[in-house]
Amino acid sequence: MIFSSPHAGTPVKFVLALLLLGFAVATVKASSPLFQNLNTKAFETIDDYRQPDKWIIVMIWAHDCQICEREVGEYQRFHQTHADDDAIVLGITLDGEERKQKALDFVARHELEFENLIGEPEVVAGYYQLTTGSRWVGTPSFLIFAPDGELMAKQAGAVEVEIVENFIAANTPPQ
């Protein structure tokens, strides 16, 4: 199995050490606004993108990740194919404020139509670890959330879009 499935069904709450700007340890819910939208500049969460009957495929990337560079085009096509039907892609870059322009250049170069959020590296890695219960490895990393918001799968490293499509099909109840 390519994807690993985290603990079954428990709501995700976690304690995140915010190293950014010298903040002390803070208790944060999964719905707390941890990331900034690269387009709107609003602070948002993954939950803000939940829609009835739509899966959310989160691609965590960095502007200088060679695998991300190769994979993002396939996820752009996946988003275009599925966004009106059963799934969306949501990007999260860990480039942080210091490399925000490089992240914006990455989005522009690939003409990405799916939304992209940005966070500081420590915050993105901490979110991944505490959401999945797994050690942060690096980019790209993927999270698959069911329409009800439950984390269904996680994977560090490259994942072919066909595998994601098959996973969604196998885990979507018949209508």
How would you sum up this structure, described in words?
This protein is an alpha+beta fold and 175 residues long. It has one domain (13-171): Glutaredoxin (3-Layer(aba) Sandwich), CATH 3.40.30.10. Helix content is 29%, strand content 25%. The protein contains 4 helices and 9 strands. The chain has helices at 66-82, 100-109, 121-132, 161-171; strands spanning 13-17, 25-29, 35-37, 43-44, 55-61, 87-93, 116-118, 141-145, 151-156. A hairpin with a 7-residue loop joins strand 1 and strand 2 (25-29). The chain is globular.
Order of helices and strands: EEEEEHEHEHEEH
What is the count of distinct domains?
Answer: 1
Please state roughly what percent of the residues sit in beta strands, choosing from under 5%, 5-15%, 15-25%, 25-35%, 35-45% or over 45%: 15-25%
Widest sheet, order of strands = 4-3-7-6-5-8-9
Give the CATH superfamily: Glutaredoxin
Overall structural class, as computed from helix and strand content, comes to alpha+beta
Helix content: 25-40%
Q: Which parts are unreliable, with pLDDT below 50 for 5 consecutive residues or more? A: 1-31
Q: Number of helical runs?
A: 4
Rough outline: globular
Radius of gyration, whole Å: 15 Å
What is the first-to-last residue Cα distance?
25 Å
